[in-house]
Design a protein that fits this description.
Elements: E1 3-4, E2 11-12, E3 28-30, H1 31-35, E4 43-50, E5 53-57, E6 63-67, E7 73-81, E8 84-91
Parallel strand pairs: 1-4, 2-8, 3-8
Antiparallel strand pairs: 4-7, 5-6, 7-8
Length: about 100
């Protein structure tokens, strides 16, 4: 079941100053790693993040803002350990036409 994003749901990713090992040390969860159950120790459930824009990097690693169409959301997963929560954005492989 998908949950609606709430500001008190959790932090987005692991903070650099946090103790190593409680959560993965980045802000993304690759879809292939989810399918391979690599997130099983932390996984609580999927969430959708309501947003108007997101930032992406192109082939040359240049960042740019992308406006989302009305009704679109960012797929993420909620992780939990010892009553602390973090949210990680789910990513997929880059399509060949964009590589």
């Amino acid at each position: 079941m998908l949950r609606k994003w709430q500001s008190n749901l959790g932090c987005l990713d692991k903070r650099k100053q946090e103790v190593f090992g409680r959560f993965p040390n980045h802000g993304w969860a690759r879809i292939d790693s989810l399918r391979a159950d690599k997130w099983k120790p932390w996984f609580t459930g999927p969430v959708l993040i309501s947003a108007n824009n997101l930032i992406e990097r192109d082939h040359d690693k240049q960042s740019r803002w992308v406006t989302l169409a009305p009704g679109m959301a960012i797929q993420a997963l909620l992780t939990e350990r010892n009553e602390e929560r973090r949210v990680y954005v789910v990513t997929e492989e880059t399509r060949p036409e964009y590589q």
